[in-house]
Structure formats: C-alpha cells, structure tokens
Amino acid sequence: MRNAKRSYFTRSLVSLGALAAGGVLCIAPANAATPSGSVPSEVRDYPYCEIIPDTVANGVTTEHVFNTLGFNTCPSDAWSTITEQNIVDAYNAAYGGATSATINGRRHWVMDSIQSNGGTTSSTDTLTVNGVEFGLKALLVIPAGQSAIGTDTYTVSTVQRNTTYVFKAGRKVYELSDPQGNVYVMQSYSTQFGPKITLKNLSKIGPLDNLPKGWHYRARTLKKDLTLTAAGTTQIVNDSFRNTFQINPAAHRKSN
User: Fold this and answer.
1) How confident is the model at residue 86, as a pLDDT?
2) Is the previous residue joined to 106 through a cis bond, with omega within 30 degrees of 0?
3) I want to staple 102 with a disulfide (CB 3.0 to 4.6 A). Which of 52, 118, 160, 251 is the partner?
C-alpha cells in the first residue's frame, strides 16, 4: 500500500452525491442533525472534505465515505497532514478491515441548497483523523472486476442518487457542454488540483485551458431558480481541475 495520499476526485460523490453503478448510497438530508451539529441550509461555497477507507471481502470492495459536512469546515492545516496511512490506521483502530484509502478534498459546494430525497442513513459512525472529525455518509460497493467511476476527466458517468440541488436566481452557475450539446452544471469545485480556484474566479479559471474538442465552458447569472433533481440516477462529469458537474436535462447547447 502506498503511504502517499491517493487523492482522486472520483468518489466526489459523495459529496452527497455520486455513486458507481451497483453501489449503495446512504446520505443524510441537508438539514439533518448530526452528532456534532447540523448542515447549513445555505451551502454555496461551503467547504468540506472526505476520507474513504476501503475494505475488501470476497473480491468486492466497499468504500466507506466519511464526510466533514455537519461536523466542521475541514480545517486546512489539519487536513493537509492527513495521509492514506493515517486513514487506514484510524479506521482499523475503530472498525477494522481497511486495506487502502482515498483522500478527497478540500471541496466547496456551488449550489445554494441540497435536499436528500431518499436513502437516508441513520448511521452514527464517526471517524477522527489527525483531529478532524468525519461522519459516515455513504457506502460505495464495487463488484469484482469493476473499476470506480470518475477517474477520467470529461467522461460522462451514470450514478445512483436521489437528491435535489437548488441554484438561486441572481446567482451564477458554471456550465460544461459536451460535443452532443448536453449541458452539465457545476455542483462542487475542488482545490486539490487547482489550489488557486475560488468561487469568485470560477468564471475566469474553470477548465478553459484544457477543454477537449467539442467541449465548452461558460458562467452565467440565473434569471430564475434552477432545480436539478436526481430521481434514482443522474449523469456527472469532471473537468481537468476535478470540479464536478451534474447534467441539466432541460438544457441543450446549440452547435456553432
């Protein structure tokens, strides 16, 4: 096992979100109380981090997604000290069986509010690593021979979840469109691979320097509320900075 951080966007899910086919998603409502507090109703630019220890049984990998949401805002100094080995050791001391781990963050929400529409977890499992507390938010089950989604940028993946994201009128949204004209709205941005990215400069930075042929990126101000509902499944895509976008089925970009 590597001692260095294994830091992919991949399971950025889980960010109350993305899940590979065949996985099981369990998430708490945006306003659900947690052992250490509650998730704010206004989440735009709210920071969070995830640690994802993996256990393996009978060839099947289970990813245990722990999130800082509702516990803390992922203090950067403490977060920067966390390694894969720290996560594995902490998980094994508390629960046992971890063989590897993923580090995901820091990330920030871009929508204004989140609502869970099912699959609510009642788990009170927590994990503290290097002084940062996390709560168990999801389990991602990956059958033998199947790889996790999200490792490739600008590759659309279908994920399982039941959530409603609301983007308020008068606020900016950041959109990717693919060669077929499908439009995807940024749900969270990452500072993991672009540490200078902030909500204020997303309009100028985004993935503009690394867009594949046929892909487009833009920022616009909403004239009315935009609601994105995932009822069972939805599609997501990552840009070169590992910012995560969800499809807007009602939108389509016309060809030039």
Assistant:
1) 98
2) yes
3) 52
- Same domain, yes or no, for 125 and 201? no
Burial string for 31-56 (b: 16+ CB within 10 Å, else e) reads: eeebeeeebbeebbebbbbbbbbbbe
Claim to verify: residue 36 and residue 128 sit in the same structural domain: yes
Structural domain containing residue 167: 157-252
131 and 46 within one domain: yes
- Between CA 230 and CA 120 the distance in angstroms is 15
How far apart (Å, rounded) are the C-alpha atoms in residues 82 and 64?
A: 17
Token match 């409603």: residue?
Answer: 164
pLDDT of residue 150: 59
Quick one: which of 83, 107, 88, 91 has its CA closest to 6?
83
3-state secondary structure of 143: coil
How high is the pLDDT of residue 4?
A: 36
Rg value, the chain, Cα: 17
Give the total number of structural domains in the chain: 2
